[in-house]
Amino acid sequence: MLDVSRVQKELAECNRDKAISGVSIDLCEGGSDLCHLMGTISGPVATPYEGGIFKIDIRLPGGYPFEPPKMQFITKVWHPNISSQNGAICLDILKDQWSPALTLKTALLSLQALLSAPEPDDPQDAVVAQQYLRDYTTFIATARYWTEAFAKRTSVGIEEKVQKLVEMGFPEELVRSTLKSVNGDENMALEKLCSC
After folding, report:
1. Are the beta carbons of 192 and 184 closer than 8 angstroms?
2. I need a surface site. Which of 90, 97, 115, 156 has the fewest CB within 10 A?
3. With b meaning 16 or more CB within 10 Å and e meaning fewer, what string describes 41-58?
4. d(CA 120, CA 56)
5. pLDDT of 159
6. 194 noted as active-site residue
7. Contact 71, 9 (CB under 8 A)
8. Which spans in 65-135 are helix H?
9. Strands across the sheet containing 53-59
């Protein structure tokens, strides 16, 4: 059974120093379900992810904290240990190295550290790992491009995306909330809007 009081304490603790740590957690899409959360991490300084804001879908199993949280990047990221297709993460503490002593905040900080120090010898995405090992300069350029394209949002860019999707016949309020839920990714928003 999910330890609700622990999760509430963890949320408060994580969000207390988000300006310093660069990580935060909120309820998913303003809901009230403590089993489905949205994590946010800032891209680490001096990496191709610097300046990006990365969203992570967090699902807590009934056995949390004795079972690890299920985490997956929503924001597209070019990294050897994160799937460029679906955001799946290869990180030991999210699998067999999880301990009840760890928290959601430590898991997000570990993801942030993973962005700083990829482990291409234990990849989630073999194509990205090969590029990292064989053509590091292209890897850095691609990771920077993906950060610019998917993890950085400008208000002008969002307004243009809203206008495009509204012109396709979708209600503006729905378009805005959908774009927000997919971190401004216009293609993902269109897929989500079409599946409603």
Report:
1. no
2. 156
3. bbbbeebbbeebbbbbeb
4. 21
5. 81
6. no
7. no
8. 104-116, 126-134
9. 23-27, 36-42, 53-59, 70-73
Q: What pTM, to 2 d.p., does this model score?
A: 0.77
Q: Which residues contact 149 (CB under 8 A, 6 or more apart)?
A: 76
187 burial via Cβ count (<10 Å: 0-12, 13-18, 19+): exposed
36-42/23-27 β-pairing? antiparallel
Q: How many alpha carbons fall within 13 Å on the CB side of residue 104?
A: 33
In angstroms, what CA-CA distances link 119 with 56, 91, 101, 125, 158? Answer: 19, 9, 24, 11, 34
- How far is the C-alpha of 103 from the C-alpha of 14, rounded, in Å? 9
Six token digits for residue 149 = 């394209």
Please answer whether residues 55 and 74 qualify as being in contact, where contact means their C-beta atoms are separated by less than 8 angstroms.
yes
pLDDT tens digits for 44-66?
A: 999 999 999 999 999 999 999 99
Cβ-contact 114, 122 below 8 angstroms: no
